[in-house]
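To whoever is covering the structure queue this week,

Two jobs came back overnight. Logging them here so there's a record in the thread.

Job A:
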Amino acid sequence: MTMTLTYPDGSEVEFADGTTGGGVAEAIGSRLAKAAIVVRHDGVLFDLDRPLPGDGTIEIITDTSDDGREVMRHSSAHVLAQAVLDLYEGADFAIGPPIENGFYYDFDIGRPFTPDDLERIQARMEEIIVEDQPFELDYIDHGEALEIFSEQPFKTEILKGVDQSEMVDGHKVSVYRNLDFVDLCRGPHVRSTGRLKAVRLMRSSGAYWRGDEKNPQLQRIYGTAWESEKALQEHLEWLEEAELRDHRRLGAELDLYSFPNEMGPGLAVWHPKGAKLRTVIQDHNRVLHERYGFEPVFSPNLAKQGLWETSGHIDWYADGLYPAMELDDGVSYRVKPMNCPFHILIYSSHSRSYRELPMRLAELGNVYRYELSGTVHGLLRSRGFTQDDSHTFATLEQIPEELGRALDFTQEWFADLGFDEIEFDLSLRDPDKDTGMDETWDHATEILRDALKERGLEYDEQEAEAAFYGPKIDVHVRDALGRRWQCSTIQLDFYLPERFDLEYNTSENTTERPVMLHHAKAGSIERFIGILVEHYAGAFPMWMAPVQATIVPVADRHLDYADKVRDRLGGEGLRVEVDSSTEKLGEKIRRAMTAKVPVVMVVGDKDVESDTVGFRRYGEESEERGVAVTEALQRLKTEGAPPS
């Protein structure tokens, strides 16, 4: 008996039944077989030594592909767990998935891991890799699995939570073995531990079991794995660059913002320079909103709990809400996690006509979300932030045009802020969040899909990633290090207009339900600025920089002239400062360069006499002497003008 396999180029080849993925790779060529990690058969990944199930498409997954690296990292996580159980008697192990650029595994050894522990574990992992232990897939009865893992509480909990429908033949679970080590796993894995060429443990930290702070705290070890030592070293160099760009570090170095312990996790205060940066970004945000036809509105930071019950946030978003405050003789209030219910109240403040639609409302509104303390991360994930929310109320017929407007707005916003790579995801319904509007959801999804196609935008579809009240387009950007950040969302919503009983009068004097379009461009202003800080490594373009030029007097006798130049430039709307400190000239220039100010202007005796300045841009070694102040002013105004 034979089976027919279809290669990626469309050609078909017959193989004997029972042929493995590794056998197919060998048939194609020895070089490909050497690079192979797993194969994809009809969209499903298979171990190289696992017989293929029959006819279908076939693709060889190599060690330099994203899928191949993910499998190597998954296998490395198993080796990590094996090493820890070998070294620490009585250790409990939990889960160990691959993650972006690496992997982790969670353990309980009764104490935190130390750097010395990580060295011991790394050494044992290297021994296991040299031993070239084979990864072997096995299916065992659920009861047998409970016996094998009877002394492992976290594995036992996982097994007890497995539904019969998830088991093979209704009663078997899959495990992988390498020698005496066995772990619950669906796979796939590399053929043997010797296939892992470059594995490095990075750090350890605390992590709650299943991410719930009510559960035991475990110890998580992070690692990374690559197809070669060269690829590993390139990644480590990338990490060093990422560390230098860390927005928390640069925020302190550039005196932009800080995170005082007295305020609690996830909350920042903005220093004068940071506030200038933020103001520039927000001002440009407002300008674009006005250009795209939005009207500004404002709303308070809290409201009666009933508002959030009507909106559905209490039902669907309870974990993200701060606890209720009882005021006004027992009435419960909540600080707001979203702005949308307030904009709905503005719409419903009086009856609306079709002539008023589309109604576009926008707000830079403060919101508060209770993020677990272990998950907050500077500005990138905080508990209090400002959302550039807009909500459009429109007829169904107006929605395609409004979606196009939203996509144009989003692309212009990111281009202005210096992001060239923009990627789109269509986030689909989560079946576990059924709002009882299946047909409406499907219709909304098609409208979003058509809007993306209309503008020729490539996109990926993401299952179960939509919010509870509608499907959405998530917009991602890639920064200078190639990292992918989700920022903007465009969401179509039939659900909230229904919950709030919104209506408008038609031209036939009947009533219809409007459709809502939720749209955030930056998302969180704080998070977006954190991304910008890391993208530019703190060296912002002139129009964005909190200080656009620093004037450095050579000596105290030049201070008056420096102040006059500053006032002259500042009077033209430029952000200029004078370094009036007593340090030597070289130290003043060094300090301005360290602060990454776009332009440093040195003034001395000849400049006072000739109404000139020295002119030196950030990153340049040489200074241009004798530049007329009028010329310097024109350069700064031209280069410092916001995107038009």
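Job B:
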Amino acid sequence: MNPLQKFKRWWQIQTQQQETPLDGEVPFWIMSFLFHLVLLIALARVFIPGLQSPEYELAVETVQPEMKKIEVAPDVQFNDEQSDDVGANSKNSFEVAMSQAADLSDLSKAEDDPEMEMRDLGEIPIERLMMEPVAPKLESIPVKGSVGVASKGAEGAVDRITQEILLRLQERKTTVVWMFDKSASLLRQREEIVSRFDRVYDELGVLKEKGNKAFAKYKSDDEPLLTHVYAFGEQIGPVIKKATADVEKVKTAVRGIPTDRSGIENVFQAITMAVDDHKALRRLNRSTGDRKRNVMIIVVSDESGDDFQSLDGCVDICKKYDVPIYVIGVPAPFGRKDTFVKWVDPDPKYDQSPQWAPVNQGPESLFPERLRLTFTGKRVFEEEAVLDSGFGPFGLTRLCYESGGIYFTIHPNRKLNKRVRRRETEDYTAHFSRFFDPEIMRRYRPDYVTTETYMKRVRSNQARFSLLQAAEASWLNPMEPPQMRFEKLNEATFVNQITMAQRAAASLEPQINRLYQILKSGEQDRIDETSLRWKAGYDLAMGRVLAVKIRAETYNQMLAMAKTNLKFKGTNKDGKKNNTWTLKPADEITTGSQSRKLAERAKMYLQRVIDDHPDTPWAHLAKLELDSPIGWKWVESYTEPPRPRQNRPGNNNNNNARPMRAEKALKLQKPKQKRPAPKL
């Protein structure tokens, strides 16, 4: 570490601030100042006669500064009364947050954190673990964690956590707390991590035997590394009574964690409990200024948590006692709360066909910043709706980020630039149709701040504010896909179908117009936006709303045309006259110049998203929208009328039928019973 870095580190410890006087352009200013000062002195010696060194010595008396005592922070006091829910998982979340947020007139911009780590994480070989780690000093200074560390399996995450354990062991004795989600969807991953314990603790044991610095300074009868296990669901608590060095005891405890079928996960309350149980290890010793042990918590979960109201208190206690949180979790779906997990009954006695169960795994931001629109004439948006956001669910990721830990996004189907179909999804895994490069997504990191700070930043720009308002409205009142096919088997039935479709479209138009007016109110502030994430979000929302607005209006006009102006002209291959009209997306707009102008604006916004934000979820959705034409056209075809039902004669109670063969009888056996998927 060079002298400049040492000075920066000293300054951070003394001032408790991340920024130092030598950050930014200050070092270059100092160098320029010193250079010109030396140059002036040299010129003065040359051109000013009689300038001689003084013939006296300067005596300087040094004064020893008084040492400041380190004060011990008081214990955290908790209020048993729960506050109003805020955040993505709460009812009327946006309105609650708005009521709590203060007005802010100046633009508040969140700078990218240069320390943020975001990359694809593979398995770390043991050779790297055998290297002597350089342990950072873990004084109580603001340290931001890493987010968006991606991996296809838990192995890479566990190997990286092994390195983190070594770093903390090199500083002082360490207690590792493993916390496992008790939901049924985590059964396989829990077993996968337990099987990995052998390698983790074996590697740590090898390093201990080889005299690694992380272990060498401790006495032979001292246990520098202890492990504790907690579990959480609707109920939370430790699985073993106290931390232990017995790995087999830890593995047995994890395998014995019962399945919680309530579907409730109180993860933040569980983490708060664990930190509170170990806070005695983290208090500063008044005489030495040191702590007894390091404590690190590793959470294994595939959900975002149901106790979001406990997040702020959890962040505060983790930061107070300097306990980093590591999460081996799942990627959050882009701009939405729920995904669908592929569930296969683990008991082979029951039907093994896959079922899809909803699971709360998002969103990646405090509130959804994406609109829910499906009025395209295609099912493509329904199929492509679940996209990788590049980050974990907001609450847990913010906790890792603010506590100095790491959030690992684990998904076995992770592959870039390729579509993942439902049938390719691994069992007990959520379906994501697309994944995106973590290095690209790094520039689009959400704001990991409190609700109050988040809403201040939102209020600083009307484009942001209008985007959140429109997103909230679109998810509370989702749009139904329009009817496209109309069979004219008789005139009355056909007219009735058209009338019902017109009513649905008429009720939809005010909803779309409201979204458009909300977004339009922020259009002037869009030019002042500096955040890539908010730029992409607003442009995509405006482009899609304009496109859907035109589709809905022209759809209604095309339906009105069908009642009077449509006449069948063609026949099918058998010469039968066509009797069915189907609306198909088309590039031409035949309903007026105003619609064509709005269509051009929609294309401008969508194309700007594609050009300015390539290889991101926003660009992917913008391309899907552009690929779906904005106009409509009628296409005729033939539908076979239903045949009248005929009564079939029985076998006249003839019981002399030939007996079935054994193979056929086996096929016709009663199928296995199918159990519904549990709450995950």
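Note for Job B: The longest strand covers residues 174-181.

Please reply-all if you pick these up so we don't duplicate work.
Q.
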